[in-house]
Amino acid sequence: MSLAVELEEAVGFRAFEKKGYTQGFKRVAGIDEVGRGPLAGPVVAAAVVLRPEYSHPDIKDSKLLSVKQRQSLAPLIQENAADCALGIVGADDVDRLNIQQASLLAMVKAIAGLALKPDCMLIDGNQSIPAALFRMANFSAGITIYQKTIIKGDRLCLSIAAASVVAKVARDAIMLEYDKLYPQYGFAEHKGYGCEEHLGALHRYGPSPIHRQSFKPVREASPQQKDYGPLFEA
Amino acid sequence: MNLNNTKQVLGKEGERIAEAYLRKKGYKIIERNFRCALGELDLIVLDRRVLVFVEVKTRTGDAFGTPFEAVEFRKQQKMIQAAQYFIAQRRLQQRDSRFDVVGISWPGRELLVEHIENAFELS
């Protein structure tokens, strides 16, 4: 690949950020979340504000990188970013809300964790974050953040790709810990996703406290209906 | 790994990890997030017959010291007062008790769970 093409690609990858800054925004954040699909564990979102000129050739959609690449890239992103924060929403909150709301809440938490609030957010997917969720994370009233949703953002936008890498590495670390605490399920390998091995263990041992009861395969493997408290007692 | 910016982020997930960790050690969970006017306690557990008040510290980098150092004096005093309130409320004066800290940090690619028994004294 010629240098010219490479440069053009890098600039293209930064196009959304560049546009944001030329439109006068001061802090443009990329936001992505991982862990929507798994039957267990938290949803983890990351918000990354890269320095306006920062680029790294290896940063791309976390799904296109190997575990090793992601693990060496994540600290690099965190050190070089102007600001970087994680938002974690546990399995119990996934059950209480629903996976859609939970992943949006994780994003809000990530944004709330930034040292300085961004004024422009680039969000992976097609769902923007409703104002009600910002209130849940104690955002001060009157703050306005422009939201731009980008479908396939992790492939098209550098900041979102960076966020996807950080979120993925963080979630993997959490699932590795849960693998030590609940070793029978094989969380270290599948990270909570519903592969055959996981489903087998789920049926053999029943769900753990970090399984998402609102997900059908988990519910089906539960010995009885989950106790929802005295409200539902006869 | 420098994760200063992401400190405290594990939050509730850290408490969940700590709880599972203690349960695996054979402790019995009595109460989580006990709050009273005097202070709060993350976890109250039983180690066989001993009542244990646990503070969960979730730091994702070590730039701010170890989790143990993070339980500063004033926080200790509040925990002690909350513990005394709990003991009085449940009439548990006869039981031995102690204060533990479970620290969860993220120094590298894996999480590190540290359990400090008798982190400080009821005095």
Could you please describe the fold and organization of this structure?
- The complex is a heterodimer of chains A (234) and B (123).
- Chain A is of the alpha/beta class.
- Chain A folds into two domains: 3-180, Ribonuclease H-like superfamily/Ribonuclease H (Nucleotidyltransferase, domain 5, 2-Layer Sandwich); 183-227, no CATH class.
- Chain A is built from eleven helices and five strands.
- Chain A has a five-stranded mixed sheet.
- In chain A, helix 3 (67-80) packs across helix 8.
- Chain B is of the alpha+beta class.
- Chain B is built from three helices and five strands; from the N terminus they run H-E-E-E-H-H-E-E.
- Chain B has a single domain (4-120), classed as Trna Endonuclease, Chain: A, domain 1, CATH 3.40.1350.
- The N and C termini of chain B lie far apart (38 Å).
- Chain B has helices at 11-24, 67-70, 73-89, and strands at 28-36, 39-47, 50-58, 97-105, 112-120.
